[in-house]
Structure formats: C-alpha cells, structure tokens
Amino acid sequence: MLVVDDDHDALSLVREILELAGARITTIDTGQGALDLIQAVRPSVLVADVGLPDIDGFELVRRVRQLNDRQVRATPAIALTAYARSEDRVKAFESGFEIHLAKPTDPAELVAAVAAAGRRDYP
Q1: Can you tell me the distance from the alpha carbon of 16 to that of 94, in angstroms, rounded to the nearest whole number?
Q2: pLDDT (tens digit, 9 = 90+) per residue, 44-78?
Q3: Residue 26: CA atoms inside 13 Å, Cβ hemisphere, count?
Q4: Which 3 state secondary structure label does DSSP give 82?
Q5: pTM reported for the whole predicted model
C-alpha cells in the first residue's frame, strides 16, 4: 500500500493504524514522489491526501489513471483529506478516487475502506 501525505504527523498516524491492521505500507510526502514510486512499488491500494503542495491528490490520481501499466493504472485509490464538502467528494470521484474519507477519520473506518478497496477486482 502506498500512502501519500505532506503532513508527517498524519502520515505517521495513518501508517501506524494500517500497520496495526496488518498492512505493509510505503509512505511518501509528495505527489511527484508518489508518481515516481508507484510503478516500482505496485501498491494494492493508494491512499492520498488531496492537499499536496506539488501535485495535488486530484492530479496525482488522474496521472495514475493514465499510466501505461494496466495494473498500476487500476490501483484502487482512497482520498483521505480535510476537503470534505460535497463538491470536494464529487471532484475526488471525477478525478479517479473510488473512496473519499474526511480527516480526521475514525481508524476503524480507514481500515474498513482500505480492506474494501483492496478486495475490488479492477480491470
């Protein structure tokens, strides 16, 4: 699993929650770093903040969805963000996220969302 967030405290918390649930986590703090890393890591799920300083999460997921590698292109993506208005949710789904979670999120909700995303069968 690849988790992207520029807030190192949030990144550490998400890592801890998901590792306690048994997930193997790779973390990165920039959108461009995630793009550079995703084909090597080939994560089962991408969890990304939307408010990244370089390439925002919307653009990150759009670019992932355009990659040549079919498996990586279809990686389930979860937006974990403070942008929680209904229009933010719509924008997240339109950009390619399958799940939108508002920060702060309940740890059990995060684990359940990751588990659900990881079970999906994408083309």
Answers
A1: 29
A2: 999 999 999 999 999 999 999 999 999 999 999 99
A3: 17
A4: coil
A5: 0.93
The answer to whether the CB of 31 falls within 8 A of the CB of 57 is yes
Return the number of other C-beta atoms located less than 10 Å from residue 72's C-beta: 17
Give phi and psi for 28, each to the nearest 5.
-150, 155
Whether 111 and 17 have beta carbons less than 8 Å apart is answered as yes
The full set of domains in the chain, from first to last, is 2-115 (3.40.50.2300)
Coil, strand or helix at 65: coil
Specify the pLDDT at position 119. 77
Q: Which residue blocks in 21-67 are alpha helix, DSSP H?
A: 31-41, 57-64
**Using CA of residue 41, residue 47, residue 53, residue 59, what is the dihedral sign?**
positive
